[in-house]
Amino acid sequence: MTECKTAQKKVGYLGPRGTFSEEIALSFYRGVEGCFTPYPSISSVIMAVDSGEVAEGIVPVENSLEGSVNVTLDTLAHEANLFVIKEMVKPIRHNLIVKPGTKHINVICSHAQALAQCRHYLDKHYPGTDRVEVESTAAAAYKVASGAKNYAAIGSLRSAEIYGLDVLDQDIQDNSNNATRFLVLSKEPVSAAGVKSKTSIVCQINGEKAGALYSILGEFAKRGVNLTKIESRPSRGGFGLYVFFFDLEGSWEDEQVAHALNAVKAESLWFKNLGSYPINTVE
Amino acid sequence: MTECKTAQKKVGYLGPRGTFSEEIALSFYRGVEGCFTPYPSISSVIMAVDSGEVAEGIVPVENSLEGSVNVTLDTLAHEANLFVIKEMVKPIRHNLIVKPGTKHINVICSHAQALAQCRHYLDKHYPGTDRVEVESTAAAAYKVASGAKNYAAIGSLRSAEIYGLDVLDQDIQDNSNNATRFLVLSKEPVSAAGVKSKTSIVCQINGEKAGALYSILGEFAKRGVNLTKIESRPSRGGFGLYVFFFDLEGSWEDEQVAHALNAVKAESLWFKNLGSYPINTVE
Q1: Are residues A70 and A182 in the same domain?
Q2: In terms of domains, do B99 and B88 share one?
Q3: CATH number of domain containing B74
């Protein structure tokens, strides 16, 4: 990591170099004097923003095929106090990449989601081959490049280029609707007034009370606030106890949204505002 | 895989021998002439039931700390047409196991999650000892049994028994809320009339229509049908389109449940009944 200049904004992303997060970072901060720091895991990116080590962090939150990135949701709910200031959706294309000269593949390594997104391809073309999970697609490319024998990685064309690897097969994802949504996180919320925006919240509702979720949804419905996503995660207190993440259209600065959120807050055991931010346009 | 006798019920589970899935299989089929077949992945267990290769299959569906097992939900929604005939919740208990005669432990190996779940125990009793990640707790037991010198594994009592290992210490997990819920799947539904039961369904609702989920929940709420779980997964048609899994109290054979489900079915783009089955008692 090189020293950042004073005027530069420090930005953390899931490294190493060559990850989709890095591509998103370069695209988002195009024209900005950014100083980019790779972190070894999603939770370490989030906690670096929380501790003030970097000003902003970029993390994946959801994939169109595999669903939510659990560590992102769990860390935002239970460990950090941050705001989403931007979302970006990036189409994901996977490739099978190897060290030049590789004849046999005994192990295929990648991020767990990438392995899952190519499951049918791997079952068909590499049945019985071990699949090893590493921290990121770029970490897999790095592992292959640094000489893990008979290994292949699943990763981006950019990671193959960065690490000097051959591309054996392109676009191996099972479904062409494969896209990942990234969030830019900060300790300070932004104003999303006057633009088409979205708001994210997380809350724990009373699981013992029948109809508690129904009542919460009613607070949105009766004010005409549209939900774009609802996701449950274990509360970590045992089976049947969940926290709920909601994404909804509009900003805290809109009157109806503010009323709905205040009502939801009043009905929740705990509640966290994750911020209002402009709705993404696909990159 | 040994040949099954004609009278035996063929049952598939997530292998290799010694996994928690195998323990669940042995516990569920106690006293039944079962013929058990390990499969290398969760989706292959489910598809073996779907194709009739085995009569029943056992798969994990949810962990109390980590949440849903996505591959189980997605395969049930999109690829197989099966019914849940039983659920079982198994507390996850870890044990320190070694080859008989082991005097010193230099390395402790297990699945990454098992190592993490015993971190405080290991820090206290084995500070400075190397920790090595392998594919499963059963694979760790196998590694120790096949002679890795001065190795200990973290695994189940059953894996110690299968691989002829000594149990050095029991119940070494740090968090007692750790439990996994398993489903037994079949091509034929069972009757859950007259017992305390649960019903699972999956449906896709009209994401374009504001309040569609609220309306679905209303069908349950107004008939006093309690939901025990709600989970969204990507529909695979692009962002913002989800299928919803609901677990609810009662059976299709109960009048109020049947009415609610018929109403939900009528409001859904597609709907799948995953069966009614007795509510688990923890094993």
Answers
A1: yes
A2: no
A3: 3.40.190.10
Summarize the confidence of residues A80-96 as an average pLDDT: 94
| Partner residue opposite B65 with nearest CB, options A64, A211, A236 | A236
| CB-CB neighbours of A121 under 10 Å | 17
- Residue B246: active-site member: no
Question: What's the rounded Cα separation, in Å, for the pair B80 and B180?
Answer: 22
Q: Does the CB of B149 have a partner CB in chain A at under 8 Å?
A: no
Q: Is residue A21 part of a domain?
A: yes
Give A235 to chain B, closest Cα distance, Å.
8
Query: With 90 as the cut, is the pLDDT of residue A86 above it?
Result: yes
Q: Are residues A203 and A256 in the same domain?
A: yes
* Whether B25 and B39 share a structural domain: yes
Tell me which chain A residues have a C-beta less than 8 angstroms from the C-beta of B231. Answer: 232
Q: Which domain holds residue A211?
A: 197-278
Residue A217 has its nearest CB partner, among B65, B217, B239, at: B217
pLDDT surpasses 80 at B5: no
Given A221, A232, A238, which is nearest B211 (Cβ)?
Answer: A221
- What global pTM score does this model have? 0.82
Task: Tell me the C-alpha to C-alpha distance, in Å, between residue B29 and each of B163, B193, B252.
Answer: 22, 21, 25
Domain assignment present for A4: no
Beta strands (DSSP E) in A99-135 are 107-110, 130-133
How would residue B1 be classed by pLDDT, with cut points 50, 70 and 90?
Answer: very low
Q: Is the pLDDT of residue B281 over 80?
A: no
ipTM > 0.85 (yes/no): no
Integer angstrom CA distances of residue A4 from A21, A57, B6, B97, B270: 20, 15, 72, 49, 53
For residue A180, indicate whether it is catalytic: yes
**Amino acid (1-letter code) at residue A130:** D
Q: Is B234 part of the contact surface with chain A (CB cutoff 8 Å)?
A: yes
Strands (E), A77-219: 83-91, 95-98, 107-110, 130-133, 151-155, 166-169, 179-186, 197-204
Chain Cα centroid distance, residue B210: 34
Number of domains in chain A: 3
Which chain A residue lies closest to B242 (C-alpha atoms)?
A229
For residue A128, the chain B residues in CB contact (below 8 A) are 40
